[in-house]
Amino acid sequence: xxxxxxxxxxxxxxxxxxxxxxxxxxxxxxxxxxxxxxxxxxxxxxxxxxxxxxxxxxxxxxxxxxxxxxxxxxxxxxxxxxxxxxxxxxxxxxxxxxxxxxxxxxxxxxxxxxxxxxxxxxxxxxxxxxxxxxxxxxxxxxxxxxxxxxxxxxxxxxxxxxxxxxxxxxxxxxxxxxxxxxxxxxxxxxxxxxxxxxxxxxxxxxxxx
Length: 209
Ligand code: HEM
Ligand code: HEM
Known about the structure:
67% of the residues lie in helices and 5% in strands. By secondary structure, it is mainly alpha-helical. The protein has a domain at 14-151. It has a two-stranded antiparallel sheet. It has a two-stranded antiparallel sheet with strand order 3-4. Helix 2 packs across helix 3. The two termini are 40 Å apart. Bound molecules: protoporphyrin IX containing FE (2 copies). Residues 23, 26-27, 30-31, 74, 79, 83, 94, 98, 101-102, 105, 161, 164-165, 168, 179-180, 182-183 line the site of one protoporphyrin IX containing FE. One protoporphyrin IX containing FE is lined by residues 23, 26-27, 30-31, 74, 79, 83, 94, 98, 101-102, 105, 161, 164-165, 168, 179-180, 182-183.
């Protein structure tokens, strides 16, 4: 995406404010729903377990809605070109991880919705405000089978996120290049890099002189 400013071609190097906003709201929901899912399935039956299931399903519905919005924003507005100083293997792996995350933020909630529908055969309440319609009639065996796929896909998402977040933090705190800044609010990346003593390559130069 190369907008023009007067006669000068200006390359966009950072995500749009809307893309950043959706990214961080979704990150907060996804990073909460995983521990909630892992906890609720290991609790004894009771009020706490029921409440956590309801929160999990409501957060999942929210993630699905945000994912649809996000895919639409991505298709309409595009994304900045890859960070220029990345090596070829880094560009390829970042693009593969981002594509896989886009698939998972759609598929994981859909499998959860399908599994819960088949398992109970009833609509799924969302924050007690409205309900998602049941996608199937009650069929517990089908529900359990779909949950196996839901849980496997959720584990794949957790592993992919570990790579994604690890790489983003490595760029922000160790390399101190401009990658993390592309997804941060305007000016935060520069402030972070300055507070850590500047980009790593500058520090190396300073030490050797
Ligand atoms: C602490 C948590 C996270 C950090 C620090 C982080 C950081 C980043 C950064 C820096 C980028 C831009 C990378 C680039 O320009 O090459 C990015 C992109 C992206 N992130 Fe995250 N992220 C986090 C959590 C998440 C979560 C939970 C999800 C979704 C499940 C997610 C999905 C994505 C996707 C799909 C992109 C690609 C955006 C695009 O090109 O359209 N991130 N993230
Ligand atoms: C991105 C969205 C979602 C993520 C990351 C996620 C993740 C998880 C995780 C980690 C577990 C527990 C795995 C385990 O027990 O080891 C789980 C279980 C479960 N999830 Fe989700 N989930 C999401 C969306 C949804 C949605 C939208 C629903 C339903 C509307 C849902 C319904 C369930 C149910 C009912 C279980 C329990 C399955 C069982 O008892 O075997 N999830 N999910």
